[in-house]
Amino acid sequence: MDTGCHNSRIIAGLHGWLCGQRLFPTLQASFHATSGMLPGVLLLGVGITCPVAPLTNAVISSVPESATGIASAVNNALSRFTALLAISLLALVLAHGFQVSLNSQIRRSGLPAFVRKQSIANQSHLRDTPVTTGLTAIQRSKTLSLLDRAFLSGFRLVMFTCAGALWIGALGVALLLPGAPQSSSRRRWEQMQ
Q1: Could you read off the pLDDT tens digit of each residue along the chain, which spans 193 residues?
Q2: What is the C-alpha to C-alpha distance for residues 175 and 169, in angstroms, rounded to an integer?
Q3: Helix, strand, coil proportions of the chain in percent (round to 5)?
Q4: What is the dihedral of CA 85, 88, 90, 94, to 10 degrees?
């Protein structure tokens, strides 16, 4: 494959990813999984899949042929490590977004003090935070709605964090991919080699 084809697949992946991520913040607390999440997940999946082969090819072809096995191993190990790191960090971002949203909403909710206290004490369960027994139907519904909105708030924060990381990664790819405009410092480095 030539560089133009690599770049077009990477750009197509970027657009798929961004379109998929753009659909997630529009979710409401009462969404249906098939119509609400599936289109975004599919676009996100296409966006992630398109640039994998060109980026892997760029990594492997940038080393001497005698070192391609090592380059492949390092590439695989780094991609798995960064995936685990991203999942761990995004879980923290989700928990933070949930906690901030729940605390903010629960203070303004008008729910009884014991419900607010128990919800805040059990917020580490995220959406599965147990709802206090002995509430009226309206109070129970309001509590569940608060939990749903807090979880969606955390999810949106995760999606925006991913979008920011994507843009940073896309900038790195645009600067480092063969055929991309090179900075003067990179040209000087390559001339010294």
Answers
A1: 455 566 677 777 777 777 777 776 666 655 666 666 777 778 878 887 877 778 788 778 888 888 888 988 998 899 899 989 999 999 999 999 999 998 898 888 888 888 778 877 887 777 777 777 778 888 888 888 888 888 888 988 988 888 788 778 778 877 776 664 444 445 554 555 5
A2: 10
A3: 80, 0, 20
A4: -170
